[in-house]
Amino acid sequence: QFLCSVLSEAADVGLALDLAPELTRAVTNVICSLCFNSSYCRGDSEFETMLQYSQGIVDTVAKDSLVDIFPWLQIFPNADLRLLKHCVSVRDKLLQKKFDEHKVTLDLIDALLRAKRSAENNNTSEISAESVGLSDDHILMTVGDIFGAGVETTTTVLKWAVAYLIHHPEVQRRIQDELDRTVGDSRSPKLTDRGSLPYLEATIREVLRIRPVAPLLIPHVALCDTSIGSFTVRRGTRVIINLWALHHDEKEWKNPEWFDPGRFLNSDGTGPTIPSPSYLPFGAGLRVCLGEALAKMELFLFLSWILQRFTLSVPPGHGLPSLEGKFGVVLQPAKYKVNATIRPDWARHKCQAE
Ligand code: HEM
Q1: Ligand 1 closest atom vs CA 151
Q2: What topology does it adopt in the membrane (predicted)?
């Protein structure tokens, strides 16, 4: 709702908007309300700090990832590693503050603290809060992981989605037709509408295919001797999965560089499908993304709300957003500006409400 009101204010005065900070704030607030039962307003200085350290981490993790591959290289002076350590320490201080401020509420920290207290009360020589991973430090790092994994990823997918929608007004129109037919303009889309909006679902899948947020997933280590196809993988080997190659494999995807949500629709166009097993935007197996279900809900709600109310386009005098991306642990699009125009039915709606 806040995001839509920012778009609405910009639309009223014809302002070209950099959506990135607004999308980040909206996604951060989803995670904040889950972890701390709180949210940030526009211009909050703590939120600005969070934006800065988060970008610092994205810019340095996996950059020229030689240290990731040869960890002993960290003995040499390294400006990126220094910046990374600084950002992590700012993050830890902020999380510690949130943790100290924490009152009794119903959120993730609260649930973890209750589990810790219950483990402490049942303390026996075999089971202690510490041994089941519930020290204060574990709780802080769990919340840190949820932030680290849950904000930049979802925000980046939304930025790519908007960039592709601006490049493809015909895709926007088709989603809007679908929204008009199934949801209308007298209420906002809900999660229960997801099953009746297959083209929007197919578009989200195509964005996740064509610009996978984690093009090399997260590095894995083989826990035992094993094999992948005809390759032997020894215990302790670092395994990097090239998701980019899987998602752009010409044997699996016709014209893989074309943005075509239709490839994720079944033959009669009535439901979403996954046409190839070469599609793993959230990874697979034991270490598959923990937040997949949450991320899909967010992507659906953000995009359906925005497209129900607005049409997105390139502001006059600006070029189309670049689709190249900046490679790092997360593949981010370059900055771009967007024009939001209120759709005629919503404009009427607003007038009636005033
Ligand atoms: C569209 C958004 C997202 C995408 C594309 C995404 C993608 C991924 C990928 C590719 C991995 C690595 C899987 C592997 O290496 O096999 C991963 C791991 C992970 N993700 Fe996500 N993610 C998203 C959102 C989220 C959210 C919202 C959360 C939490 C609230 C989250 C939490 C995690 C965690 C904790 C892991 C590590 C799991 C483990 O190692 O056991 N992710 N994600």
Answers
A1: 27
A2: Peripheral membrane protein
| 3-class DSSP assignment, residue 124 | coil
Is residue 275 one of the residues assigned to a domain? no
Q: Residue 247's pLDDT is what?
A: 98
Separation of CA 248 and ligand 1 centre (Å)? 21
Question: Which own/partner contact pairs does 214-217 have at CB distance under 8 Å and 24+ positions apart?
Answer: 214/153, 214/243, 214/283, 214/329, 214/330, 214/331, 215/242, 215/243, 215/244, 215/327, 215/331, 216/62, 216/240, 216/241, 216/242, 216/243, 216/244, 217/241, 217/243, 217/280, 217/283
Q: Ligand 1 centroid vs 283 CA: distance in angstroms?
A: 8
Q: Does 281 map to a domain?
A: no
Over the stretch 322-345, which tens digit does the pLDDT of each residue have?
999 987 778 889 999 999 999 987
Is there a domain that residue 196 lies in? Answer: no
- By residue range, what is the domain housing residue 121? 18-150
Could you identify the atom of ligand 1 that is nearest to the CA of residue 285? 16
**Which residues have C-beta within 8 Å of that of residue 56, sequence separation ≥ 6?**
83, 84, 86, 87
The total domain count for the chain is 1
Identify whether 138 is part of a domain: yes
Which residues have CB under 6 Å of ligand 1? 145-146, 149-150, 153-154, 157, 213-214, 217-218, 281-283, 287-291, 294-295
Please state the ipTM of this predicted complex: 0.98
Q: How far apart are CA 63 and CA 321, in angstroms?
A: 23
Hey, which of 282, 294, 300 would you mutate to test ligand 1's pocket, going by the most ligand atoms within 8 Å of its Cβ? Answer: 282
